[in-house]
Here is the input.
Amino acid sequence: MVDISSMGALVEGSTRLLPGTNADVHVVTRHGRVLARVRVVRAWVWRLEPDAVRYRGALSFDTALDTEAGGYPVPVGASAARSDGGRLYPDRDAGRIAGTEHQLDTKQFRAYLQMASSLVADDDSR
Here is the structure.
């Protein structure tokens, strides 16, 4: 389970989902375990690995479910925490040295990162 709302869910797994098909899923809410009828709205290949294919799919519930906070804790797993969908925007303050107002240009910032990485590597080898 990647995300959930009262009308649907975004899921990820190794099982291929076909748009337009129906399925039954068990959802735990604050009222207990509910068997919900869903329709697969969209499905796509999310990630290709040497020995596996990961899929994501958008599911639409036939009837609304109560998924308020405290009712259904969405587990934070590796798939939810990891995003292989591209690069993040750079941090606005990425070129600033911590604790200073000094702004580095790109060349200086790269040199600073290289120096910091070598210090960490030296510390790890001890």
